Amino acid sequence: MPNRVPFHDELLRNVGIPQQAKLLDSSPRSRVWRVRLADRRLVIVKQITDGGDTGADADTRFAREVAGLRLAGRSAGLAVAPAVLATDPSSRVLVLEYVDDLGRTDDWMPGYAESLARLHALTGPADAGALPVWSGPTATDAESFLTLARALDVPVPSTVPDELAGLLERLDPTPHHALLHGDPCPGNDLRTADGVRFVDFERASLGNGLIELAYFRIGFPTCWCAMSVTAAPLTEVEDIYRTTWRGLTGKDVPGDLADACAGWLIQGDALVERAHRGTVDQLARVPAEDFEWGYVSARERLVHRLGVVADMTRDHDHLHAVGRLSSALANRLLERWPTLRPLPAHDTRPWY
Questions:
Q1: Contacting residues for 63 by C-beta, under 8 A, at least 6 apart
Q2: Is 35 strand, coil or helix?
Q3: Alpha-carbon gap, residue 160 to 140, rounded angstroms
């Protein structure tokens, strides 16, 4: 039965006896319950399921979630994730601290940015190997981006291929060891009296924190609810992130935010939900069809990202030609499909 909590003997001994359970909404790759134990405590029980993956893939997601949550649990100050109370690897079950989400607030981004920086600052070089390194854009993605430009009859400046090759080198995650959430989207951030806590660490990795700080500019690229953040709110949250990071590490955030945004731009898989990533060249679909994910279409996501990169690279030493190409591509998309809408504003984010 779907509401039967998968507690085997070890969890019964270590956690207690579940008396009431409510099945919560979750992705097809997991089942999540809010459980009241016999001693009246509330806990969250999450079981990683195959969800169309092979068993080995589900085991990998379980291992990443456990590792990511345990690393996040190092926080000596404000917590940035629920505590792991127990695990049962044989059935891919985690028992987590129950976190009471305060729900909707109009000014949600400052707390999100602060907790994101706190999360990223928890790990360092000594943690190499604790999680996979972040998987970013590849040479295949760069070529797909160039092919898209040609398909839309947009001239490619001669220096763009070299600029993209340099971008891939600069995005190499090897020198970086920030704890990346992997999918820090609305719904995976719980607002509490002590700050934001993140859940769903199945895609946790180690890399450069700018990859996730870029979410504010590039439109939340792994989320069904793409959003636009502009002007003063954008400056505020980026300042909060950088100040928090500097206060915790004593250093400035490494790397270039423009590089991080350009990296998201050229990844076609960032136009579709997780189940469809790695299946086809998503950028190659754009000239022929406009496919939706959530309430935003692929072309609308792409126009936003092109505009962001064009704006950020006008005076950029290493991405100037990529910026000019991005501007031309955005104009071409809007010429061909003038009814494309801008992304919804950040204050329209969904609440769960």
A1: none
A2: strand
A3: 15
C-alpha 117, offset from chain centre: 14
Q: Mind giving me the DSSP string for 73-99?
A: TT-SSS-SSPPEEEEEGGGTEEEEE--
For 292-308, what is each residue's pLDDT tens digit? 988 999 999 999 999 99
| DSSP conformation letters of 246-278 | HHHHSSPPPS-HHHHHHHHHT-GGGGS-GGGTT
Which residue's structure tokens are 């989207």? 185
Query: Which residue, chain included where needed, has tokens 């590089």?
Result: 259
Q: What is the pLDDT of residues 165-209, one digit of tens each?
A: 999 999 999 999 999 999 999 889 999 999 999 999 999 999 999
* Alpha-carbon 274 to chain mean position: 11
Give every CB contact of residue 335 below 8 A, 6+ residues apart in sequence. Answer: none
Q: Report pLDDT digits (tens) over 181-192.
A: 999 998 899 999
The mean of the pLDDT values for the chain is 93
Q: Are 82 and 99 in contact (CB under 8 A)?
A: yes
SS3 31: strand
3-state SS class at 144: helix
Tell me the C-alpha distance between 333 and 313, whole Å.
Answer: 19
User: For residues 300 and 290, what is the distance between their CA atoms, to the nearest angstrom?
Assistant: 9
Per DSSP, the three-state class of 319 is coil
Three-point CA angle 126, 132, 135, nearest 5°:
125
The tokens of 312 are what? 């950020």
Global pTM value? 0.94
Query: Quick one: which of 302, 311, 349, 351 has its CA closest to 330?
Result: 302
Q: Which long-range contacts (CB under 8 A, 24 or more apart) does 151-154 make?
A: 151/284, 151/287, 152/287, 152/329, 152/332, 152/333, 152/336, 153/332, 154/325, 154/328, 154/329, 154/332
* H-helix or E-strand spanning residue 42: strand 42-48
Q: What is the DSSP letter of 32?
A: E
Predicted local confidence at residue 3, as pLDDT: 58
pLDDT > 70? residue 220: yes
